[in-house]
Amino acid sequence: MEGGGNSKGSGLGGLFGAGGAGGPGYSHADLAGVPLTGMSPLSPYLNVDPRYLIQDTDEFILPTGANKTRGRFELAFFTIGGCCMTGAAFGALNGLRLGLKETHSMTWSKPRNVQILNMVTRQGALWANTLGSLALLYSAFGVIVEKTRGAEDDLNTVAAGTMTGMLYKCAGGVRGIARGGLAGLMFTGLYALYNNWEHMKGSVQRQSL
After folding, report:
1. Which of the residues 49, 55, 88, 96 has an alpha carbon 20 to 30 A from that of 189?
2. Membrane spanning segments where (predicted)?
3. Can you tell me the distance from the alpha carbon of 72 to that of 146, in angstroms, rounded to the nearest whole number?
4. What is the rounded CA–CA span in Å between residue 200 and residue 207?
5. E strands present in the chain
6. Contact assessment for residue 122 and residue 95, using Cβ atoms and an 8 Å cutoff
């Protein structure tokens, strides 16, 4: 029994690196000075190389051929909803301003409150409908241009903004179409310029050097 116990201890010791009676035993003090060529020191708490714990890549899995950024179709829902809420908030504030201005000669009473509330509701719905319609047209044109060209860049943004302005003002004739297209071109051009300002500034600095 004693021999079997020694042999079992020796086997377990060999398995876990502890020296048995016939094998060389190394203490932690002996191994502390051994250099690890090409490796960083092991963690004193975990017997793993810390290099394997560093994540250099993204931790999510993308389908084959998918982009890391959202496309125009995915951003369309956020754009339309955000424009609707922004229009409703701006319209409500504008309606409150107009309501207070039109009823400034009235005393604070129920008819005045009802009139102000009606103005707030009317203006909020009007601006929400306007900005929501513009966002819907812009998103639709952006998706169409992206699918047609097969690329995603600022040219799609400018083209979608120009066509949105032209279609939105098409009821005003040729002059209205021209004004709407020019307004859309100006706004989207300014946005594209702001979006690439840092890149353009870096390119100018590199060329000056």
Report:
1. 88
2. 75-96, 126-145, 176-194
3. 8
4. 11
5. none
6. yes
What is the percent of the chain with per-residue pLDDT over 90, rounded to a whole number?
40
- Tell me how far apart the alpha carbons of residues 184 and 190 are, in angstroms, rounded to a whole number: 10
Sole residue written with tokens 């952006």: 142
pTM for this predicted structure = 0.61
Rounded to whole angstroms, the Cα distance separating 25 from 6 reads 16
The one-letter amino acid code at 22 reads G
Rounded to 10 degrees, what is the CA torsion of 11, 13, 16, 18? -150
Q: How far apart are CA 18 and CA 21, in angstroms?
A: 10
pLDDT at 30: 52
Question: Amino acid identity of 206?
Answer: R
Output the six-digit token pair for 48.
Answer: 């793993």
| Residue written as token pair 């125009």 | 72
Inform me whether the pLDDT recorded for 45 exceeds 50.
Answer: yes
CA distances from 65 to 28, 60, 73, 117, 183 (A): 50, 14, 16, 51, 36
Q: Please, what is the Cα angle at 73 between 68 and 79, to 5 degrees? A: 100
d(CA 146, CA 140): 10
